[in-house]
Amino acid sequence: MNTYKLRLVLAASATAILSACSSLGVPGFGDAGGCRTVYVVTGGGVQPISNCGGLPRDGLAAKSMMAAADTVQPLDLADPADPASADPDAPPAPVILPVSQAAQATAPYEAPAKPYASPQAMIENADMAAFMARVREDYAAKKNAGAWGYLAVDAVAADQPELAVEVIDALEGRPVSDWMSGNHLRPWAYAASGRKDDAMAAMKSMQRMLPKPDHVGHTALLAEGMGDYELALTTYGDFENAFHPPAPDGIGTMQYYIEARAFQAQRLLALRKAELLRGVKRDAEAEALLERLLAASPDDGYVENRLLKAKTGEDRLAPRTLKQAMAEALGDEANLLEEQEGIMAAMAGRGAKTPFNHLLASMRQSALVLDPDNGVIRAAEASKLYDNGKFEPALRIAQLGNPPAQMAALLQSTAGLAALELGSPDTLAAMVERSLKIDSGVDAKIQAAGTLATAGKTERALQLVDQALKSQLSPPQKVFALLTRAQALNQAGQLMAAVEAARQARALDDDENTQQFLASMLVDSPQRAEGLEIMRKMMTDQPDNTGLMNNLGYSLIDNPVTPQELDEGFKLLKQAIRMTPDEANLLDSIGWAYYQYGDFREARRFINMALEEYAPFGHWELSDHMGDIEWRLGDQEAARKHWQAALLARPPEHNKARTQAKLRDGLTTPAPERRDTPEVPLEKDRGAIADI
Question: Structurally, how many domains does the chain consist of?
């Protein structure tokens, strides 16, 4: 499957998801009586309603709603029934107050049908009400000390500073975890108790625990949260004396990565310093700092926007409270953890999706207990939940808090995408319209158009993107708008118009993205040869890029003109999948190649693996391919089920018509003849992965 086609239509088969969840008894999707929960837009947000007549819980109105294995260490929460996790010498259990209001607000729309199987399940469901209650219970019983740090966070959120310090003191002498330990949280507990000097001393002791930029950022945030703005500004100072962006000619090298990472750390600290300078009305200094940062990286649209806002006096934020500063620090630590996770995934190099990281999620969700209005952290967590198929939690968490308008609009769109995967495309459309009432700027319109195109709402998508194109757009905005227009036109079945929009985008910025986007459109059009030529040229510049190998390889084997094209495409795909054997697009592509060689059983094996990698999402092209394979293998019933799933996954209109014809008439063309695949030398094999 062409990678860029995936980006155009990344959507799951909602019916398949609903059916699977109902059979498993997942809360919110149905029960033995045949009732099913649907998600509708109400005055307070998207809420569940039973199709048997049930109404949303009354408690929802009180909420603040907007108008497989870990790759890192798991949460240290033992089974509460395990007597070995209790401390027999512990003093009498203290009285533990209820969880914070912010944690309570995260409770699911519907109570779970049965107790959570584990604390990890609470995190997967974004239920910090249950999670923090569990941690408080365990602290009272003096067991599972590895998770007590979360109680310190909730205690600060609930304005219980004495409890926070008590918890930190109770952790003294116990094994120290890499994250969320007493050492990490001690400065904040002391600050919440008014012990400023102790807080700063505890933060200083963290120098060996965090990279220098992160420690500087934490120290400045702590000072800001305690109201010592001058100390915060002084702390930031060391990192913005001279900016050092990476040299562009080193892209792709380890040195470039090191330089880029260092510059991004500088950039973040400079942006926070400028924000604080504006917060204390030192506007001239803020503007000068932003101007120097923009001079170091002239193409940085975000910095350019912040400078414009500073000059016009817009978006001035008050200095952070202690809770907001602590949340920001936890968010920084989560980002650091996520970066480490990404490096590990890149080193593994197999192309598999990253499993759900409970520790990372627990840190961001804890940060949101401290500051429910932090839109950046909320968007990051909602996106992670969505990407991991946790659609109901993603929908719910995206609607909590009161973030700034721009982030609120983005979160509304995220909630809409989650509703789409839960079977409510009309809810997505309604959520997008709500997001546009919050932010109707050109960027918001372009983003909304892309979201609507994903749901097949192409008429409204084109209307919005055309409105944006009539505005005064910067070159990057215009490229984004034109590519979004091409996406919507392709989804609407207007392929040649989509090609023209993609050509216009490339004319403005002839880079890898616009080239590949245009090529992916061309290979489906009468101008296929031009698309293949673009892909071949890109391959000469990056011969080991598995994404490019997949795109060219798939374009050659999908309806090949000659046997030589089929062989060439197969060789590329075989070489690529040796390097990234778990990448879903490649699994589909190599499976479809085997179909073209008439090896339907091998084709089914690979595309089954692709479907498993995509789960719980689906993709129309994978299901369409599987339908063809099952038909060739003689299982017409299975074939029609897969074609039906393909239609439910919202294919572009021109593909939809072909699948509808197959669903009605079956395959009417002769099956590909069985012939041997070509031998593929191992030159591109990296040696660590066996031939597949």
Answer: 1
